[in-house]
Design goal:
5-stranded antiparallel sheet; about 30% strand; alpha+beta; 5 strands; about 80 residues
Length: about 80
């Protein structure tokens, strides 16, 4: 597990052994998990967003586009 992005609003966690990424919306306390070809597409899109502008505001705006997909509520164990 590797945290590849961390802002006030989002975490992006890479799970190399699962070939997947978890996207977590900290404010809404929900997440989603991408695996396989969807994860590859997400990683490429995120890299493109960072290459365009690596500011927190820009990357958060990019990740905000995935808000509708984040439907898994976060729970604390």
């Amino acid at each position: 597990m590797n945290v590849i992005y961390n802002s006030e609003n989002y975490y992006v966690v890479e799970y190399p052994s699962l070939h997947g990424f978890e996207l977590i919306d900290k404010q809404a306390a929900r997440s989603t998990f991408f695996q396989g070809s969807v994860a590859e597409t997400f990683a490429q899109s995120m890299q493109h967003a960072v290459d365009e502008d690596d500011s927190v505001e820009h990357v958060d705006e990019f990740l905000e586009g995935y808000d509708d997909m984040m439907s898994v509520p976060l729970t604390v164990h």
